[in-house]
Design a protein that fits this description.
Largest sheet: 8 strands, mixed
CATH class of the largest domain: Alpha Beta
Number of domains: 2
Structural class: alpha/beta
Strand content: 15-25%
Helix content: 25-40%
């Protein structure tokens, strides 16, 4: 049952990766580290394997999955790349950028990864463990965050075990995720582009490549992960912009606001991003009934942090 520590955590060494690759090829699911957060991976060309992800996470089936690929060549077999997409891939791949592109009619993917949409969300990750798995399996891997749907994303192997229990029978322990926030998601439309989920790559960086402002027109539907109004929730009421804590609040600090867990005593937003989910996990486990979070300055990755916090507080 999810929540009980019945997962097998193994080192992400050659033996562990070989075990994980065998399970993935056989249609199983494996929790794996990436540079953003831990993902719950399965082969994206198998309807049964993708269904196992949805079951393990308790994820609504209208919420699409990101498909991870080893390189641009693999991605081009699954989606249609225009000049803008190629330019973004050349600049930011491998790395924490997900592109939402038109799905090829002949793409060898389970229908469920797109959740009925004509598009596919693709990422080429930079983490060496995930890249080795992609190379060894020679498969595209669907891999949403390895936690119960709507909960706090995992940045350590033990976070996965606590959230999913035996729903994640094998967890590759690759240490702490370096970025600590999910990838930036960009959709390319005929008449422009839009950041669907802010992340480690700032919107200004996307604009520098594409040479235009983001398209502000939205489709009004869920097009990519992380768009649900309530998401990343720690299971307790959460108050933002706090300078101090009430008696029943666990205070997540930043800079001069020390708190019970300080995201970055030096006020470094990149460091804060890397520690955000660990802080939310600590707050969820604390005896305090509520959570308070110090103000985080906006701009670039600060916007991504505040996006996650607003959804966690909803």
């Amino acid at each position: 049952m999810a929540g009980k520590h019945l997962s097998q955590i193994v080192a992400a060494d050659a033996a562990g990766i070989a075990l994980a690759a065998a399970r993935l090829r056989a249609g199983g699911i494996v929790a794996v580290p990436t540079e953003t957060v831990y993902g719950l991976a399965a082969r994206a060309d198998s309807a049964d394997a993708v269904a196992a992800i949805y079951r393990a996470k308790g994820r609504p089936d209208f919420n699409p999955l990101i498909v991870h690929v080893l390189d641009l060549a693999a991605a081009e077999g699954l989606a249609i790349f225009d000049a803008r997409a190629l330019a973004l891939a050349a600049t930011f791949w491998p790395g924490p950028l997900t592109l939402v592109l038109p799905r090829r009619a002949d793409a060898a993917l389970a229908a469920a990864v797109s959740a009925g949409l004509p598009t596919i969300a693709l990422r080429c990750p930079a983490h060496p463990v995930m890249r080795t798995l992609l190379a060894e399996t020679a498969l595209p891997l669907a891999a949403p965050s390895a936690n119960r749907s709507g909960g706090v994303s995992p940045t350590r192997a033990e976070h996965v075990a606590k959230s999913l229990g035996d729903a994640a029978p094998l967890i590759l322990d690759g240490g702490v995720c370096s970025a600590g926030l999910e990838s930036t998601i960009v959709v390319l439309r005929v008449d422009g582009w839009q950041v669907l989920r802010p992340g480690p790559i700032a919107e200004a960086g996307i604009a520098a490549v594409l040479g235009s402002a983001a398209d502000v027109t939205t489709s009004g539907r869920i097009e990519a992960p992380g768009q649900l109004a309530s998401h990343y929730a720690p299971g307790k009421p959460l108050r933002l912009g706090a300078q101090s804590a009430a008696g029943d609040e666990f205070l997540i600090g930043f800079g001069s606001v020390a708190g019970d867990y300080n995201l970055s005593p030096n006020g470094d937003v990149t460091e804060a991003a890397a520690h955000l989910y660990a802080a939310l996990h600590a707050a969820a486990a604390a005896p305090h009934a509520r959570i308070a979070v110090a103000a985080i300055p906006g701009g670039e990755i600060g916007d991504a942090i505040n996006d996650r916090l607003r959804r966690a507080a909803t």
